[in-house]
Design a protein that fits this description.
Layout: H1 2-22, H2 24-40, E1 43-46, H3 49-58, E2 62-63, E3 74-75, E4 78-87, E5 91-100, H4 133-142, H5 167-171, H6 175-190, E6 194-204, E7 209-219, E8 228-233, E9 238-245, H7 246-274, H8 277-281, H9 286-291, H10 297-331, H11 341-363, H12 366-395, H13 404-416, H14 420-435, H15 438-443, H16 454-478
Antiparallel strand pairs: 1-8, 2-3, 4-5, 5-7, 6-7, 8-9
Helix pairs in contact: 1-10, 2-10, 7-10, 7-11, 7-14, 10-11, 10-16, 11-12, 11-14, 11-16, 12-13, 14-16
Length: 481
């Protein structure tokens, strides 16, 4: 065991010298340090509670039906107001007022509003007193999936529509249902657990506008992801956003900038720096010295492969770990899910590095290895993007607009190739769940979508890595040097 560790250490040192001599690894570490410094210069100033809560409850006009299980956001035509806000030990206490308007409910269960009701009294006497836009929203929220008999055509996830419920459904709404609805709104919009207690209902003539009053206690401080913040850069020198939820800001930084743009640049540079490892090893003189040592060629190639992964792991850990620590200290929101980028980005590189090693072994050219690997990376990205677009078309009930051969070709390619794009989707899933509120996820189309399987994504990609590295090892063993 100790003998193998010494061999691996010696090969790792050789690879390290090659990487340092090329200056690229030092450039990557320097870029990582710059990114960490920029994140450390960011400021996240929370709005005062007396300004934050009115803004939070104003967003309650958007809700997800079916007790939050629905995918499409719907619209409650009410005014949500917050007042008498007080800081308490566990969080905050406040009063929430819901100002509702008289609604025009369906005269019969499932009847569409554009169809005239039958002659005679449409609703029982006094029913209009229990028909308003807040009860309308809560009744729609209480409906089970598929309960609504007449549905509009499918819409994008961000489309807002008024709910359609019957008078009977509105009359069935109880104060406890309203309390549960508001508690979920605090959880879905601000990621704050809430206890809600119905206080009273007031009706204001002559328009019969109804006001519902609730006592609310929420747990959590100002560093929750749904709390509005002002973001600055360079220690307050530049203001980037005002009154934007903290989770949205962190999601853009972590997923779009660090994982998206930064991850792409890191993979590009990593492919370049590691592409020289195998050609340099196969040079005349170097290979003679290496194969004269008591070490198998397959073992030698495996050590080279693992050595390249370790370098990328170190750089990724330094950059992502530093950014995570800087953002957490500056914002007060600790999101350990962001650290998942470290192993997932390293695994994405492992797919590309397997291609790089095989090409380098066949051609002995670092330049050929770089070009082929980057083209393969681009091809995987295009296949993944087209697959996502076709899946969206199929879900929108317009499969006839797509050629069968196109669907079959893309599905086949996606099944037999490494799941590079699926790995990126799963990373986005982890980051969005750690930063975005439920409503924010639904707004940008991430709530309720079907993600790729972890087992298929990792299993197929790992099998691909084993096959490519195995082919490279077989070629290495069969050649005379």
């Amino acid at each position: 065991m100790g003998h193998h560790l010494r061999q691996f250490g010696a090969i790792l040192r050789d690879s390290y010298r090659e990487a340092v001599d090329s200056w690229i690894i030092l450039i990557m570490l320097a870029l990582g340090a710059v990114v960490i410094a920029l994140c450390a210069s960011m400021g996240f100033e929370p709005l005062p509670a007396e300004k934050a809560f009115p803004k939070i409850v104003q967003s309650f006009t958007q809700f997800l039906p079916h007790r939050g299980q629905g995918r499409n956001i719907e619209y409650a035509d009410c005014n949500f107001l917050a007042r008498d806000i007080q800081k308490v030990e566990e969080g905050f206490q406040l009063i929430v007022e819901v100002q509702a308007k008289p609604s025009a409910p369906l005269p019969e269960e499932g009847r569409r509003p554009d169809i005239l009701p039958p002659k005679g009294p449409a609703n029982p006497p006094g029913a209009e007193r229990d028909a308003d836009t807040f009860r309308e929203a809560v009744a729609r929220w209480l409906q089970k999936e598929g309960q609504q008999k007449t549905r509009p055509a499918p819409e994008p996830p961000f489309f807002l529509r008024r709910p359609q419920v019957s008078t009977q459904e509105q009359q069935a709404v109880q104060p406890a249902d309203m309390e549960e609805f508001l508690a979920q709104q605090f959880q879905f919009h601000a990621a704050m657990p809430a206890q809600v207690r119905f206080r009273e209902k007031r009706t204001t003539p002559p328009n019969n506008h109804t006001t519902y009053i609730f006592d609310v206690t929420v747990r959590g401080g100002v560093s929750v992801r749904g709390w509005p913040h002002t973001m600055t850069m360079f220690f307050g020198g530049i203001t980037l956003t005002r009154e934007t939820n903290l989770g949205i800001i962190l999601y853009v930084i972590e997923d779009q900038i660090i994982n998206g743009l930064g991850g792409g640049i890191a993979l590009l540079l990593s492919v370049i720096v590691t592409a020289f490892f195998i050609p340099n090893m196969l040079r005349k003189g170097s290979i003679d010295l290496i194969i004269s040592k008591p070490i198998g060629r397959m073992t030698l190639l495996a050590y080279k492969y693992i050595g390249g992964l370790i370098f990328v792991l170190i750089i990724t850990t330094f950059t992502v770990g530093g950014v995570w620590l800087a953002l957490a200290l500056r914002s007060g929101y600790w999101n350990p899910a962001f650290l998942a980028v470290i192993p997932l980005l390293t695994f994405a590189f492992a797919i590309l590095y397997a291609v790089s090693i095989l090409v380098a072994m066949l051609t002995r050219s670092a330049f050929a290895s770089i070009i082929v690997t980057l083209l393969f990376m681009l091809f995987l990205y295009i296949v993944g993007q087209v697959k996502s677009i076709l899946d969206t078309f199929k879900k929108s009930n317009s499969p006839n607009d797509i050629s069968t051969w196109a669907i079959t070709t893309i599905d086949t390619l996606n099944n037999v190739l490494p799941r590079y794009k699926d790995l990126d989707k799963l990373t986005t899933k982890i980051l969005s769940e750690g930063t975005l509120t439920t409503i924010e996820s639904a707004t940008i189309g991430l709530h309720g979508i079907e993600y790729p399987s972890w087992w298929n994504t990792l299993g197929v990609s790992l099998l691909y890595i084993v096959v490519l590295v195995g082919l490279a090892g077989w070629w290495f063993r069969s050649r005379d040097y």
